[in-house]
Every structure is written in structure tokens, then in C-alpha cells.
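Shipment paperwork, digital attachment
Item: protein structure file
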Amino acid sequence: MSENNNLTHTLLSEISRLKEENADLRDELLSLRQVIHSLIKLLQNLETTTPNTNPHLLLNNILTAALKAVDSRDGSLLLLDEEKNELVFAHVIGASKDKLSGYRLPTGDGIAGWVALNRKPMLVPDVRFEPLFTPQVDQVTGFQTISIMCVPMIYKDRLVGVIEVVNTTSGKPFEETDLDILLLVAHLATQLILRAEGKL
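Attachment content:
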């Protein structure tokens, strides 16, 4: 009898494990489809973007695609003001939109400033343990940053700006695969912006 009980318990445990595994695979598949859909949207924009393209709509399309690709609702596209050497929050989506739009950040300040200055991406799973994170923007907006990713937009030797995304919708920290996806989005975004400027 006890052998049957053990077998039943083992089978039930295995069924439960397989159900969880299937749920994880479904989530991964949905996430992958979302990434592909976002990248296709950007590629379609690349084919149609000209100097006559509405810049606000273009920046919105870029940032929307970036956020969908990495499962986030809050992010910013910051463009470099080369004369003043400052990053300008050119387009913001999410809770901080009203307070951050047009906000300026000196190159080198905070995570976005570091990314711009060093032209390297940064992934911060938990900002509490990142000395470069400055709570200044959170204080201005009342937003709480938990996890953050920021990548540069570069064409040849020119820094165009950076894309920054904050917090996942699931509450989990960003991972390296998310950073890889955002880097790809930034590459396409750079080409889109330069096409809109008539420089590509």
C-alpha cells in the first residue's frame, strides 16, 4: 500500500512539475513573440522614415517598441544636446512622463549620463546596490526605480543619445537577455533617428 502511495505521490509531483514547466514555456513563447513583433515594427518604420517623418511620432514608436520588447511600461529616450553636452528627455512613456519630458541631465550624471559618457550599456538589477544611481529623478517624479537598463545609441563615432527602461511589468529584475534585446532596439533606433535627420 505504501509503495502505491509513494508512486502516486511521485506521479503527482511530476505532473505538477510538468505543468509549471509548460506554463514557463508558454510565457517564454509569448515574450519571444512580443520581441519579434517589436523589432518588425521598427524595421517597418526604417523603410518608411524620411526627413518629413513626424519626429514625435517616430520617437514614440521607438520607445513603445523598446518597452514592449523588454516587458516594461516606463522608459525614456534621451537625445544628446551636443552644444551643451547634456542629455534631454526627448520622449518619455509611463508614470513620469509629465515631469520628465524636456528634463536635462549633464553627461556623466547618473546611470544615463555614465552610459552616454562611456558609450557602454548598463544593466542594474537592483538600484539600491548601484553607486551610480542617483535618486534625483525619482525625487522629481515621485517614481520608484527598482531595476533599470540603459543603452547608448551610437552611429560610427557619433553618440545620438540613450534609451533607458525602468522596472519590468512582472516586478522581476532585468536580465542579460533583456539587455541584448534593448541593444538591438537601440541599433535600429539610431538608424531611424539619423534617417529622420536626413543623415543616413
